[in-house]
Amino acid sequence: MFKRERNKKGGSSVQWKNMAGIPSQPNDKQCGYFVMRYMRDIIHDTNLSFADKWARRANHVYGQVEIDEVRNELTSYVLKNILKL
Prior knowledge:
By secondary structure, this protein is α+β, with helices and mostly antiparallel strands. Helix content is 46%, strand content 12%. It is globular and about 45 Å long. The model has no long low-confidence stretch (mean pLDDT 78).
């Protein structure tokens, strides 16, 4: 997350804030799936205090089942909407 602040010259700068609870990936080959799963969780979250809720999930790691859900959703979307199969 980031917070926009004005600097002394009247311009603005972005200050990034690391959020606790963001799931980590076990290797460097699945980052896209982890990002997509994290975005899916954000979209489906009805709780508006998202940052507070995820801070309590520190050290969460997505399991294979959660990553496979994203793979299956993406595959279904591509087949149905892009390839029209």
